[in-house]
Specification:
Blueprint (H helix, E strand, L loop, with lengths): L1 E11 L5 E11 L2 H16 L6 E9 L1
Amino acid sequence: MINFEIKGRYKGGIVGKTWLPFRKVVESQNEKNATNKVYSLMGSEHGLKRGLIRIDEVKAVE
């Protein structure tokens, strides 16, 4: 398994009109599974739909 660092933005804030940055490190087999895992985590933690999450960067880390 590889650790992936995923950076992006999600629509949130008090009114839900601002894009807030996030950074997650997840363990996954490949980049596609890592991004899906982040969508799932952000959805469960913040109650967000996938359309409110923007992933800007995905990279493998040590």
